[in-house]
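Issue 218. Parser rejects a valid record. Input:
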Amino acid sequence: MRRLFRLSSTIALAGMMATTAIPAFTAPAQAATLSGGFDVGPGGFQGNFNPLAATGGFTWLSVYFEPLVTYDEKLEKVVGQLASSYEVSPDQMTYTFKLADAKWHDGKPFTAKDAKFTIELAKNAKTGSVLAARLNAVSSAEAKDDKTLVIKLSAPSASLMDTLTKVMMLPEHALSQIPADQLAKNTWWSTAPIGTGPFKFTKYVTDQYVELAANTDYRGGKPALEKIINRYFANPAAAIAALRAGEIQFTYVDSNDLTAFNNNKDFRVIEGNSFVVNYLGFNHDSPIWKDVRIRQAVMYAINRDAIIQSLYGGAAKPANCAYIADQVVPKGIETYAYDPEKAKQLLKEAGWEQINGDKPITLLTYYTTPLAANVMAAVQAMLAQVGINVTPRAVDTPTYNSIVLNPTPDVAQFQMVYAGLQNGPDPGSINVGLNEKQIPPAGPNVARVRMPVLTAALDAALGETDAAKREARYQEVCKVMNKELPWGPLWVAKRYGVASSKLKDFVWTPAPGGGPYQAHPEKWAIAE
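Output the parser choked on:
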């Protein structure tokens, strides 16, 4: 018997995320322009227009591109976007999607051929797709007719639907003539992209803003706004100043920036769990980290509670593996409470003086906010107290990726990284950062983790299609991580956005990577 799911359908969660919808005003909304710092975070990531290569910024990208399925605004369920329903075969090897009636921004119909084309692009690593590794189980995509897409798997994958929420549909007629290896950096993404969403791309002014105009033919109805503009800022302080001056109506903020908005009726602070674990990634190609006692010493040397309280203002929770959600964290695992004397003893036992001594260790990161700089400085100071000498190096995201994703990187450029990887809503998403089969160029296992016991635990969890057994599988992943320390897990911080109280029907969720999720931008409005 085949199982039919009307979208929405509940999937396994790594945990619950907070979300806030800005309540409607009684005054009528006027057609207007909404400006904000929507993309990635304060400052944004200019040029982040290609959803195949995007690791964040989906809050913005999903305003004009759309996936087949997405999360609801609470990140609890997968709901339909460009698909209205889907069926799963009894062996969980075939997914059949029925597509909604939709048009591209140039007026051409969206069909199953476009969906097939997009899935094949996303599977092809030559396109620069960061989703290729997550779609390994997809053996084929077939357009049965204009409104029916069939995806066949080589093995059951409980994380397929989560991955598909991040696969934004792309037009075959506009992109099919571009060679796959030239697609990633093609000018189309920043000059003439077309999607199916409620707003359409009109202009990009380098380093300043992207402008979208209302898609008056949108299947969900004509948008309430005329335009949406994504502003870029040199730093978070500039974005906050623009928000307070009324130049923009929304931006991400760090926890230490909230005092300017708390108890201010002109703004609404939106708070939620990021479900992004921040970690110190030990480059396992570097010989200095081979002994687990050295990795344990790093954990014991860092006073995570002090950093959380003093720098995050308490707005984070320690992580002792890749997860913090209760259902996937087993009881009794090591908490790595701050113990610098134990760290020193472990280093002595492992022969740290002979292995590395006080030679500087490059600690690479793409986090460039003032908060991140303070965190890096605190980590540097704490490690120095036990005899580990690290030198932080903060770079922009493209530079970071060019270093860590290089198939043959210079180990000296990064012996350790300070980074983040989402672990929700589906816990399977952490696999690409830890599975030895995802070492670059195959995937984003940038720490070059080669632990057969961890890979086996991840594979077992990913292949477990019985929802009742999945949590136990991921608990096993957590146990292995906690014992073997492929990373030095630090914490999961809360995420914040601040919106003008003038916004009506505006939905923003503090989602990993910015989403995507069901936000209905066509309903967003500004009340005067």
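Fixed in the parser; the record now loads. The CA atoms of residues 133 and 442 lie 7 Å apart.
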